[in-house]
Design brief:
This protein has 125 residues and is an all-alpha fold. It is 60% helix and 0% strand. It is built from seven helices and no strands. The chain is globular.
Length: 125
């Protein structure tokens, strides 16, 4: 039986790997294949360790928002695109395509204005 904490609630159960890890790994692998890059290329360009990317690809750890953002910036895609299962990303309804286009446009606008580039803001400081 699991221990009860001070508030009387049971402690957290050990959870298995979340399906989002697999989706993220598959999307990053697909982009790496399309762009013909390897993990050291991404790591060097985004100031990340190769091990961080390898653990993401092997679904060993839950990735941080910063890691997802850095990889998305490298491939010039919106971060949410790395988290969408491919069948869902290929949805053909007009409203879905319109929503995805609006988010992409907003992401590009932020990138162009310099607000979406954390490296640029560090250099200015």
């Amino acid at each position: 039986m699991r221990a009860v904490n001070q508030r009387g609630a049971r402690g957290p159960r050990k959870a298995g790997k979340h399906p989002i890890r697999k989706v993220l790994a598959e999307n990053v692998r697909r982009l790496m294949d399309e762009h013909r890059v390897i993990t050291p290329d991404i790591g060097k360009a985004q100031h990340m360790s190769r091990r961080t990317i390898d653990r993401l690809l092997s679904e060993e750890v839950a990735s941080t928002v910063d890691t997802v953002g850095a990889i998305a910036d490298y491939f010039r895609v919106a971060p949410f695109e790395l988290l969408i299962d491919r069948p869902a990303a290929r949805a053909t309804t007009p409203s879905t395509r319109r929503t995805v286009q609006i988010v992409k446009n907003d992401h590009e606008s932020l990138r162009e204005s310099g607000l979406g580039d954390k490296n640029k803001s560090k250099k200015q400081a």
